[in-house]
Design a protein that fits this description.
The structure is a single chain. The protein has 170 residues and is mainly alpha-helical. The protein folds into two domains: 54 residues, no CATH class; 93 residues, no CATH class. It contains eight helices and four strands, in the order ββαβαβαααααα. A hairpin with a 5-residue loop joins β1 and β2. The protein is elongated. The mean pLDDT is 85.
């Protein structure tokens, strides 16, 4: 199996034959193949119940364009889409130190056009809480973000531990 720069798996006809030989019950419903025409023609003639394969077409977008396009189709209720996430986060602050840190972080998030991501994270966290889903304490450089702490993504207070936001947003 091959993967393009976006993580989309695709295969060649030869690799597909090997995969089917190893596992005849392999689910091929969403398999992308560089040249599926020969396979699809054989399926039509001999195995009408098998799904046709999809032609793999490399995406010529940049990763940034790909991410931006996909963010527009994320499932998110309207209340979260219309949420002023910056104001919601600022309202969580209780001290001047927290306001300064959050203000500085929000500028960095805004410069990188990450407000839609913050809204999506709020929606995910609220959904997890509503369904009693447990998630980790914190992981990697994300714990350097006080904004993510206030959203509930992690439980590490980066102000308390004096963690630099640049560790996360570099």
């Amino acid at each position: 199996m091959n993967y393009d720069k976006f993580g989309v798996p695709y295969t060649t006809s030869e690799q597909l034959c090997d995969l089917l030989y190893q596992n005849p019950n392999l689910n091929l419903e969403k398999t992308f193949v560089q040249d599926p025409h020969q396979y699809n023609d054989a399926v039509k003639v001999f195995f009408a119940d098998l799904p046709e394969l999809i032609l793999y077409q490399p995406n010529d977008q940049s990763i940034e364009q790909f991410d931006t396009a996909n963010q527009k189709i994320w499932h998110m209720p309207e209340e979260y889409q219309n949420l002023d996430i910056a104001q919601w986060i600022l309202d969580k602050c209780i001290s001047q130190e927290e306001l300064q840190r959050v203000g500085a972080e929000l500028i960095l998030y805004q410069e990188r056009d990450l407000f839609p991501l913050l809204k999506q994270l709020k929606y995910i966290i609220d959904t997890w809480r509503a369904n009693n889903i447990v998630w980790g304490v914190g992981r990697g450089s994300s714990v350097a973000s006080y904004v993510l702490y206030l959203l509930g993504v992690h439980k590490i207070n980066s102000l308390y531990y004096d963690l630099d936001i640049e560790e996360f947003l570099r």
